[in-house]
Specification:
4-stranded antiparallel sheet; WD40_repeat_dom_sf; repeat; Thrombin, subunit H; single chain; WD repeat
């Protein structure tokens, strides 16, 4: 029984195509822009069974399977700025893969002391170096590493009187005007905090949700972010020039539970992965609902946008749906 779409919304489209073959729930997706297979980009998926699949969007088949997580769920995938390397995060291990010329080999790894589901984040620091944020050893800690040397930069631990619980999602970024890295972290108590990594201090913390923050994304050009949680609302917040976060508004959802939220690279639209099996698409500036993508038959765990605007969604139903919506103008 699917409720009729409101009059303002056209009937939802069908996926452009569907990728099958993970044989396991899909928990992570990432478009690999640097790798062109006959001019077509590739899609990476991470599954509950611990495998990473590399998909050709041309043949719609997996062209390689990476097995480095010993059966532990893969929750985050990120290709590195220099192109031919991949980070994959399992429950207790982060693997660095060399994907050049089909080598597909683990060349390094970082043991994780956390057993949560908090995805890592990276920030390029020049051609060959990058900064990595991952959940830390203490349940409320975040560890910052310099990569690929794996040198510990610092551990970010909340102030003594703050009890935010575990970090649930992380986003490293820096402004064009300042070399100082910042970190946005969503926490178990529903708060979002902005850390100054160099100073190891929280610049600002806001209560966004009454439930753990499951996903967040940040538009550094508009200094505006969005987060989703187990509750029935998206929170939109902004960052002023004094590094203070402010809640801008809540957008009520039809059903509770957001696993992931992503802003498209052109900052026009936003997609959410829902516990209600739906992918919802919103206009980013106004948060007007644009589409409800009802294809999956179980929780949608992750969404990802390609540079050209293609949208992928991964679900507990073992399928990955690929959508072409609102073409980039």
């Amino acid at each position: 029984q699917v409720a009729a779409a409101p009059p303002s919304m056209a009937a939802p489209p069908d996926p452009q195509f569907v990728l099958r073959g993970t044989q396991s729930a899909v928990h992570a997706l990432h478009f690999w822009g640097g790798a062109q297979e006959q001019g077509h980009q590739l899609l990476l998926s991470g599954s509950l069974s611990g495998l990473v699949h590399i998909w050709s969007l041309q043949t719609r088949r997996a062209i390689a399977t990476l097995d480095g997580h010993g059966g532990q769920c893969v929750i985050w995938l990120q290709t590195l700025p220099q192109g031919q390397q991949l980070l994959s995060q399992g429950r207790d291990l982060l693997c660095l893969w060399d994907l050049a010329e089909g080598r597909n080999a683990v060349v390094d790894s970082v043991g994780l002391e956390s057993v949560g589901f908090c995805r890592g984040s990276i920030l390029a620091r020049g051609q060959q170096r990058w900064m990595l944020a991952v959940p830390g050893g203490g349940s409320d800690e975040i560890q910052i590493l310099e990569m690929p040397s794996k040198t510990s930069v610092c551990t970010l631990k909340p102030e003594a009187d703050a009890k935010p619980g575990m970090p649930m999602c992380l986003e490293l970024w820096q402004t064009d005007s300042s070399p100082r890295p910042c970190l946005l972290a969503g926490y178990e108590d529903g708060s979002v905090a902005l850390w100054d990594v160099s100073e190891r201090k929280v610049c600002s913390r806001i209560a966004c949700h009454t439930e753990p923050v499951m996903g967040l994304d940040f538009d550094s050009q508009k200094a505006r972010g969005v987060s989703g949680s187990a509750e029935k609302a998206l929170a939109v917040w902004s960052l002023d020039e004094q590094q203070a976060l402010q809640v801008r508004g809540k957008h009520e959802l039809t059903n509770p539970g957001i696993s992931d939220v992503k802003i498209r690279p052109d900052r026009k639209i936003l997609a959410t992965a829902g516990w209600d099996h739906r992918v919802r698409v919103f206009h980013w500036r106004t948060l007007k609902p644009l589409a409800v993508l009802a294809f999956h038959s179980a929780v949608v765990h992750c969404v990802a946008f390609a540079a050209d605007g293609l949208l992928a969604a991964g679900s507990r139903d073992h399928r990955i749906s690929i959508w072409s919506l609102y073409p980039r103008s």
